Amino acid sequence: MITFKSAVLIVFGVLQGMTLGAEVSHTNSLKLSDIRVRDPFILADSSSKTYYLYAQGGNKSGNDNADLGVMAYRSKDLVHWSGPERVFERPKSGFWGNPPIWAPEVHKLGDAYYMFATFFGRSGGLGTQILRSASPNGPFQILGPDANTPAEWEGLDGSPCIDPDGTRWLVFCHAWSQIKDGTVCAVRMNKDWTARLGESIVLFRASEAPWVRAFRRADEFVTDGPFLYRTKNRKLLMIWSSFRKGGNYALGQAESESGTVKGPWKHSKDLLFGDDGGHGMIFKAFTGELVLVLHQPNGGNKERAKFFKISETDDRLKVDGPWDPETAGRDRAPIAPNGTAKTL
After folding, report:
1. Which residues 6+ apart lie within 8 Å of 59 measured at CB?
2. Of 265, 215, 214, nearest to 240 (Cα)?
3. pLDDT tens per residue across span 80-115
4. Which of 181, 230, 239, 313 would bridge 344 by S-S if both were Cys, CB 3.0 to 4.6 A apart?
């Protein structure tokens, strides 16, 4: 998450200074245009045939530094939304993480739901923490006393990937604000996602991508929001965000030449999306479409989740244009999604 302006269980029904019910719409009256969200993440939950949109609580209030936990909106059709309901409340003691909370994403891995979220407040300033719940509605519980990225690093935007041989990886960014030329890194995780195994490795640096420009100074390059996707032909792709040459916030893609997280990674010179939007993820709609969701624009408290239909062409992703779920799949029988496109 790039912007300038965390073992207590969640207590449903209580918000700071008000009841949860006072903040929640149960009437499916919300549209995406009503919901401010940075770094949007959609879980298409096949067991309940429900879509969940996860966001940090401060997005709704317009104060991204607020200590409001993680919220979830729900929808059956991606058009009409209810919520938000709090699915994680940051413990006020006994936990290393402080607000703000950035880029929460939720994946069903095995029989449980795992949240990956970035917190402030330790020696490195930023860290990714993994949480777990039996339900996509939470409450999500913190796994272990320490962050899942190295303590001395500004590690953010963690996201899971599983190699074909079963190796579990936490893929994350090492922030440009600490090392100038930001990197995408990975660290192996144990089977239940509770602990790191070994040291982190660097997958690539931001400046290696041909489309990336310097951020604020000539030696500063941003990596942001990695998300991994395996194609029909089992190629491993990564979409990630930075700032593009001749423009603003954008979304590019890279391919692992080994088909595993270790890479090496080859960057496409062509952008996936270049119009002041990014931090994207991919999911499969219940109507069968492959959908990219990202936030746009990238500031001014005007950020909204935007949907785009995407397709695979020669083992690359291509945006086919904006996607309207209200008109999608009217002449087709719904098919079950393969969860999010992240469990590889």
Report:
1. 36, 37, 38, 71, 303
2. 265
3. 999 999 999 999 899 999 999 999 999 999 999 999
4. 230
